[in-house]
Structure formats: C-alpha cells, structure tokens
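seq as requested:
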Amino acid sequence: MATETNKVVELSTEAKAYNGVDRNAWIFGWNPQQELWNGRLAMIGFISYVLWDLAGYSLLRDVLHLVR
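struct tokens:
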C-alpha cells in the first residue's frame, strides 16, 4: 500500500485578483491593484510618521502647542 505523502505541488508565482490580473502589478487607474498599493504606501507613511514622532520631531505636538 503506497502512500502519496510527498506530492509536489506547483504554485503560481502570481497572485491573481478577481479580475484575473496579478495583484502586485502596477496598473494606472482605478482598479483593485491600486487599492492594494494605496494601502501599502499609507502603512509606510503612517509608520514613518510614528518613527519620526518617537525620534522627537513631532509636528503634530508643535502645532497643538501653538493652538493651546
């Protein structure tokens, strides 16, 4: 009785979106790929600001100090 536990599974190198295009492709216009890139760039910007703020260069704290 032979078991097939060591099957080779071929996986695609592209992650397809529901429109059949690679999800990581940079396509101009309003499409699902741009929504992913927008989210990624927003996360990078948010983390960059948090690190900038923790380093002591807080723009928000300075502006709120002026308002107060």
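Residues 46 and 53 are 11 Å apart (CA to CA).
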